[in-house]
Amino acid sequence: MGNNISQHIAFLGCGSMNGAILTGLLAAGVPSGQVTATVRDPEKAANLAKRHGVQVLSSTEETEANRQAAGGADVVLLGVKPVGILDLARQISPALKPGTVVISVAAAISIDMLEAALPQGQPVIRSMPNTPSSLGRGVLSISAGTHATAELMEQARTILSAAGTVVEIPEDQVDALSAVSGSGPAYAFYLAEAMAAAGVKLGLEEDLAKLLATQTVAGAGYMLAEEGADATALRKAVTSPNGTTERAIATFDEQGLPDIIAAGAQAAAERAGAITKELDGR
């Protein structure tokens, strides 16, 4: 993978999403010399540099850190908290080369908002990754801005695919995608918590119940990751007629679990839209 990426990449902010992509890229073989990162805290900068072998600048120690990193990059990934993304975009605008593509991995910040904060004609791509990207098992969407050509979209796909599966979607589907894959890892963790709690109620020791739930959810995830895997087929294979699993699934259906999951995803998507409006009014 690394041999296919010749651009210099700047990660401005290394929170959970940008940090996950950075980790995935380096694990896939992207040379550390092609990567620059910035964080606020000097200690975190030193720790990241030591861990990954890349140049990491502290914006607290060097006030021009973000501009310096952005100015030397062909691709800039914006990864600070959503509330700070537009200020960061305005900060780096004078330093950007005209052809540099700006990829935002921030939730709730629309392409229109980004393009208004950047120089006229600057290529912008919006991405929504999820945290398994740090293991190369992520799902990362890409949505094209006004000036993001097919070539630039393919460039973004190549870079981001080091961290997982890349899907191209229109921006109006981002909130729905976020409700499934962006928030989705938490749903799986929530399921493991609930399974462990159920085990305790059935009389298992807490540590054993946690171990069983954790390894079962993780193992099921590996089965889903196999080529050609289908969740429905896998579920049916475990669900013998009139057996124990069938009784559990029937109870889930009777209790309305599918509707509960749909309602949660709907609430997540609606909240994403509301946050975008809140931030757009700043």
From TrEMBL:
Alphabetically ordered keywords of this record: Amino-acid biosynthesis, Cytoplasm, NADP, Oxidoreductase, Proline biosynthesis
Binding sites annotated in the UniProt record for NADPH: N66
Domain (Pyrroline-5-carboxylate reductase dimerisation): residue spans on this chain: 171-273
A biological process from GO: L-proline biosynthetic process
Top enzyme category: oxidoreductase
Catalytic activity: L-proline + NADP(+) = (S)-1-pyrroline-5-carboxylate + NADPH + 2 H(+); L-proline + NAD(+) = (S)-1-pyrroline-5-carboxylate + NADH + 2 H(+)
Compartmental location: Cytoplasm
UniProt-listed Enzyme Commission number(s): 1.5.1.2
Function description: Catalyzes the reduction of 1-pyrroline-5-carboxylate (PCA) to L-proline.
Descriptive protein name: Pyrroline-5-carboxylate reductase
Organism of provenance: Arthrobacter pigmenti
Lineage of the species this protein comes from: Bacteria, Bacillati, Actinomycetota, Actinomycetes, Micrococcales
